[in-house]
Every structure is written in C-alpha cells, then in structure tokens.
Amino acid sequence: MSEKQQTAKLTVAALATVFLWASAFPAVKYLLDFYSAQSIMLLRFLVASFTLAIAAVIKKARLPQIKDLPLFALGGFLGIFLYMWLFNTGTDMVPSGVSSFLISSAPVYTTLLSVFILKEKVKLFCWIGILVSLCGLVLIALSQMSGFVMNIGVVMLVAASLSTSVYVIIQRQLMKQYTPLEATAYPIFIGTLCMLVFLPGLIKDMPGAPLAASLVTVYLGVFPAAIAYLAWAYALSKAKNTANATMFLYLIPFVATLIAFLWLNETVSPVAFAGGIVIVVGMLISNRYSK
C-alpha cells in the first residue's frame, strides 16, 4: 500500500470517528428523557460488546496474556465504565454542545499525562497551548454558573476527559502487542461487565421507553461505541504520531453542536461557544509544537 493510500484510509477512519462520536452527544441528550444515564450506558455497551464479540470471532482475535490483564482491566474501568458514567451523567446537566467542547479538551490532559507518566518532552509553545485551552475551560465553566454555584456537570465532564486521556495512554501501550480490535474489544468487554451493576435500572426503564429511543441506543452501541472506538484505534495505531490522529478530534465540538442544533434545536451561549473556540485554539497550538 502506498503512503498516499494509507493516508487516505487514516483520514477516512478519523473523520468517521469524528462524526460518530459527535453524534453521541445529542443522542445521549435525547435519550435522557426516556432512560437514566446508567441505563443508557449499559444498553449501549451491551450492544457494543455483542458487535465486537462477533468481530473478534470472525477475525480470530487472540485472548489477552495474563500479564496484560491488569492493563486491560484498568483501561476498561477508567476508559469505558468511569468515562461513560461521567459523560452520560454530566451531559444531563449541560447543553450537548458545551459537553462536546469539554470532552474534546482531552488531548490537553493526554499531553500532560505523557509528560509525567511516559516522560515525553514537551516544548514551551505546547505549554502555552495548554494554558490557552485551560482559559477556554474557565470561560465555559463561567457560562454554566448560576450565581456563584458551579454546574456539577462541568466538573464531571472535565473528569471524563481526564479518564479518557488515561485510556488513550493505556491503549497506546496495549497496541504495542495487540491489534486495534483486540486493544478495543477487551477493555469494552470489561467496562460492560462493570456496568452490569445498573441492570436493575435498565430492566425498569425499558418497558416505558418508546421504540425510537431503543433504536437510538442500539445506534449508539453499534456506531459511536463499537465502530467508532475501533476506527479510532486503527487511526491511532497507524498514524506516524498521535498528533496526526488527534488533530481530527478538534472537529468534534463543532459537528456535535451542529447536530444538536438540527436535531434538538439546542443552542450554545456566546460565552460557552467562545470558550470552545479558545480550547480548540489552545489544542491546535499544543499539537503543532508537541511534535
């Protein structure tokens, strides 16, 4: 395969990930009228696990080695279970456009973790970019304050960003020995097992939910979960460096905001939108000078 063909495949995989992950923000917001946040995440990842299990059988995926099980377990707990709980619960408290900007600040935290955990060197302008992005987070936080009370949803979404940042580092480590399918499927299986604590709530919610809501949840499981996580792992494993792949993720807030506007008639306050722009600018600066 030529370099041009490989670049084209990476671009398609990354753009597909952007659209699918962006669509998850308004989809979850819509579903929260019918399901609890915990029921959404469990049903979504039961579908995702079933989809990936079929793919694993077809592709004859290898089982994890015993020595790697703790890393798979940590990835499943932090990057799937904890992340989805924080994401779904936080999204119920803020507009989906705002939540997408907050979640998309994850590359900033990934850079910080890479410095302290992986001992990677970061240039001065990268730190400047991180500082700019943090200023954007402050603007969004201020836009979601009522009087002097902070919207706890903002805090939860920032925590979700931190959780998924750790997951990216774990997945990078796993893909040194495992395929993108293997490095994606097993953490999702483990994360889904953790979510079974919410099964009684799902059983209670399902009879009262309309068919349309259940179909949207199935969509979330097959596409933004199974397919998008797999596409992202493929892009991450094949890119020359992580920055080449993460550049595309900066598009997610704008795509999510557009989908939310068209689907839910949801708008974002000027201050929150400005904060999102500042975050993206800061992340672009960080990405450009972290190579």
Task: Give me a quick take on this structure.
The protein is an all-alpha fold. Helices cover 78% and strands 0% of the residues.
Strands, helices and their partners?
Blueprint: H1 3-31, H2 37-58, H3 69-91, H4 96-103, H5 106-116, H6 124-143, H7 152-174, H8 180-195, H9 199-205, H10 211-238, H11 242-249, H12 252-264, H13 270-289
Helix pairs in contact: 1-4, 1-10, 1-12, 2-3, 2-8, 2-9, 2-10, 3-7, 3-8, 4-12, 4-13, 5-7, 6-13, 8-10, 10-11
Euclidean distance between termini CA atoms? 25 Å
Helix content: over 70%
List low-pLDDT spans: none
Total helices: the number is: 13
The major sheet is characterized as: none
Return the average pLDDT rounded to an integer: 82
Structural class: mainly alpha
| Beta-strand content | under 5%
Instruction: Tell me the Rg in angstroms.
Output: 18 Å
Q: What overall geometry do the principal axes of the alpha carbons give? A: globular
Number of strands: 0
Listing every helix as H and every strand as E from the N terminus to the C terminus, the arrangement reads HHHHHHHHHHHHH
